[in-house]
C-alpha cells in the first residue's frame, strides 16, 4: 500500500481563502516533501521538512509535521487562481532509497 | 523551467513500434529517475540511476528499457507496448540520494494504440 495519503482528494475554495491539505504516512521517515503539479505538467518542489522539524514556511505556504501522528499539513494562505493544481506529499519511508508519492489533493481556486 | 527537459512532449505509437523518450538535466545532479503517472494512480517510480549506474528497477516490464550514458542524460526505450502503458512519463533528477529534493521535467504524454 502507498506510504503517503492526502486528504481531501479534492478541495474547492474561493480566491482569498486559505486552503489546508493533509498527508498521513505509515512508516518512519527522514523527511517529507510537498510538490505541486499543474494539469499535465511536471511536479514542482514546494517544501522539504525534516523529521526533526515541526513547522516550515515559504512565502504563503506553511507546512507542519507531527511525527507522533505520522501526519503533515500544507496550508496555503490568501489563495490565488494560480494556486489551482494538484498537491502531493512524498516521503522517503525511512531507510528506503526512494520517494513515495501519495495520490494528491486536487485544489481548485474559484475567482 | 526546472532545468530538466524532456522530448518529445507528446507521443502516439502503435503496439509494434519502437520509440525512445529522452531526458536531459542541466543542474549537475548525479541521480536521475523515470516515473509513470497514470490517471487515478499515485506516481510510480520506475528506474533510478546514480552516477550512471542503475540502482532501482521497480519491477518494470522488460518492454521498458532505460539507458543512462552519462549523468546528464537518461533515455527510456519503448518496444511492443500495451494500451495500458499510456500515461504521462516523468523524468526527474536530484543531487545526492533519492530522499532529497527532486526536480521534474514537463513529462512526455504517451498514447499507445
Description:
Chain A is mainly beta and 111 residues long. Chain A contains no helices and eleven strands. In chain A, strands 2, 4, 5, 9, 10 and 11 form a six-stranded mixed beta sheet that branches. Chain A is globular and about 45 Å long. The model of chain A has no long low-confidence stretch (mean pLDDT 92). With 113 residues, chain B is mainly beta. Chain B has no helices and eleven strands. In chain B, a hairpin with a 2-residue loop joins strand 7 and strand 8. Chain B is globular, with a radius of gyration of 13 Å. Chain B starts with a strand and ends with a strand. The model of chain B has no long low-confidence stretch (mean pLDDT 92). Chains A and B meet through strand 4, strand 5 and strand 10 of A and strand 9 and strand 10 of B.
**What is the average per-residue confidence, as pLDDT of chain B, rounded to a whole number?**
92
Most strands sheet of chain A? 6 strands, mixed
Low-confidence stretches of chain A: none
User: Please, what is the average pLDDT of chain A?
Assistant: 92
| Unreliable parts of chain B | none
DSSP strand count of chain A: 11
Given the helix and strand composition of chain A, which structural class is it?
Answer: mainly beta
Approximately how much beta-strand content do the residues of chain A carry? Answer: over 45%
Shape summary of chain B: globular
Helix % of chain A is: under 10%
SSE run of chain A: EEEEEEEEEEE
Please report the distance between the alpha carbons of the first and last residues of chain B. 31 Å
List the helices and strands and how they pair.
The complex is a heterodimer of chains A (about 110) and B (about 110).
Chain A: E1 5-7, E2 10-14, E3 19-24, E4 31-37, E5 43-50, E6 55-58, E7 61-66, E8 71-76, E9 85-91, E10 100-101, E11 105-110
Parallel strand pairs in A: 2-11
Antiparallel strand pairs in A: 1-3, 3-8, 4-5, 4-9, 6-7, 7-8, 9-10, 9-11
Chain B: E1 4-7, E2 10-13, E3 18-25, E4 31-37, E5 44-50, E6 53-57, E7 64-70, E8 73-79, E9 87-94, E10 103-104, E11 108-112
Parallel strand pairs in B: 2-11
Antiparallel strand pairs in B: 1-3, 3-8, 4-5, 4-9, 5-6, 7-8, 9-10, 9-11
Amino acid at each position: 500500500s502507498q506510504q503517503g495519503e492526502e486528504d481531501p482528494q479534492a478541495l474547492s475554495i474561493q480566491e482569498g481563502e486559505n486552503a489546508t491539505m493533509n498527508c498521513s504516512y505509515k512508516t518512519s521517515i527522514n523527511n517529507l516533501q510537498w510538490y505541486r503539479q499543474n494539469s499535465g505538467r511536471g511536479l514542482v518542489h514546494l517544501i522539504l521538512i525534516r523529521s526533526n522539524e515541526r513547522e516550515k514556511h515559504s512565502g504563503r505556504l506553511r507546512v507542519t509535521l507531527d511525527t507522533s501522528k505520522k501526519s503533515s499539513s500544507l496550508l496555503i494562505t490568501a489563495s490565488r487562481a494560480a494556486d489551482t493544481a494538484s498537491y502531493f506529499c512524498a516521503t522517503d519511508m525511512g531507510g528506503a532509497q526512494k520517494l513515495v508519492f501519495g495520490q494528491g489533493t486536487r485544489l481548485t481556486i474559484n475567482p | 523551467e526546472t532545468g530538466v527537459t524532456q522530448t518529445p512532449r507528446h507521443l502516439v505509437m502503435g503496439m509494434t513500434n519502437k520509440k525512445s523518450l529522452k531526458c536531459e538535466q542541466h543542474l549537475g545532479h548525479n541521480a536521475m529517475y523515470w516515473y509513470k503517472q497514470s490517471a487515478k494512480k499515485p506516481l510510480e517510480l520506475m528506474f533510478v540511476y546514480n552516477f550512471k549506474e542503475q540502482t532501482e528497477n521497480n519491477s518494470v516490464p522488460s518492454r521498458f528499457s532505460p539507458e543512462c550514458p552519462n549523468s546528464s542524460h537518461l533515455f527510456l526505450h519503448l518496444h511492443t507496448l500495451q494500451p495500458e502503458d499510456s500515461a504521462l512519463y516523468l523524468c526527474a533528477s536530484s543531487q545526492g540520494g533519492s530522499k532529497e529534493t527532486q526536480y521534474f521535467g514537463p513529462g512526455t504524454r504517451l498514447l499507445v494504440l
